[in-house]
Write a structure and sequence with these properties.
Layout (H helix, E strand, L loop, with lengths): L3 H9 L4 E4 L8 E2 L2 E10 L3 E10 L4 E10 L6 E9 L2 E9 L9 H9 L17 E11 L3 H16 L9 H18 L2 H10 L1 H12 L6
Antiparallel strand pairs: 1-3, 2-3, 3-4, 4-5, 5-6, 6-7, 7-8
Length: 218
């Protein structure tokens, strides 16, 4: 599985990262899983967070990366990876927080290169209308992990290389981002529901807005 540090290094090659204090969540445990969380302000891009978790004698591992663009007009980017019970699950989704229109052909081409991978049904959720194609949802045996790694890295690089300019309307950008994050907190989602049950609404909102998405001031 691609280490989150590899994604962090790719970001460091392109922009200055300033660490956000996440000490309040050090040693966080939820439903038998121990979480490690870090977050950064990425100069010229926006907010970035990394969250990894392991549990059940390391039989289950999860990684999450969230990029919440504020300065560059890119869509919100969510990467999730789960290793459990001999299976590898890869989910990459982009959400419409754009103030302009940009082509995603280069990312669609990457998606098509790996079209033979076993598809995973992501189910139906309130945020489906906000998704921007291409999105990825694959699940297979661990033998596919190296190929999932290659796809994850190439897809992320294409995202970073998208010809998006600076945000022309910061207020609209913040509004669209807050709409998605507040929607998660109000309507739920697969991972949001887990945190809600374990931490309660108040602490979950603080974690999401201050650390994971960086929307506290929006």
């Amino acid at each position: 599985m691609v280490r989150l540090s590899a994604f962090e290094e790719l970001l460091r090659e392109r922009c200055k990262l300033t660490e956000v204090d996440t000490s309040a969540y050090s040693g966080l445990r939820v439903r038998g899983m121990k979480f490690r969380i870090s977050a950064y302000e990425a100069e010229g891009l926006g907010h970035v967070s990394f969250m990894s978790a392991s549990g059940f004698c390391n039989l289950m591992k999860m990684d999450t990366m969230i990029i919440t663009p504020r300065e560059k007009d890119l869509p919100l980017y969510s990467y999730d990876r789960i290793l459990a019970a001999g299976n590898d699950t890869l989910m990459i989704e982009m959400y419409d927080t754009l103030t302009g229109e940009y082509p995603f052909d280069s990312m669609e081409a990457v998606r098509e290169k790996f079209a033979a991978f076993p598809e995973r049904d992501p189910g139906k959720h309130w945020y489906d209308p906000l998704k921007i194609a291409p999105c990825i949802s694959f699940k297979g045996k661990k033998v596919l992990s190296p190929s999932f790694d290659a796809l994850s890295t190439e897809f992320f690089l294409k995202y970073l290389e998208l010809p998006a300019g600076s945000v022309s309307d910061p207020e609209l950008k913040a509004e669209k981002t807050a709409h998605y994050v507040n929607g998660l907190l109000s309507n739920g989602g697969p991972s949001t529901d887990v945190f809600m049950k374990a931490l309660g609404p108040g602490k979950t909102r603080e974690l999401f807005c201050s650390i994971l998405f960086g929307t506290r001031n929006t």
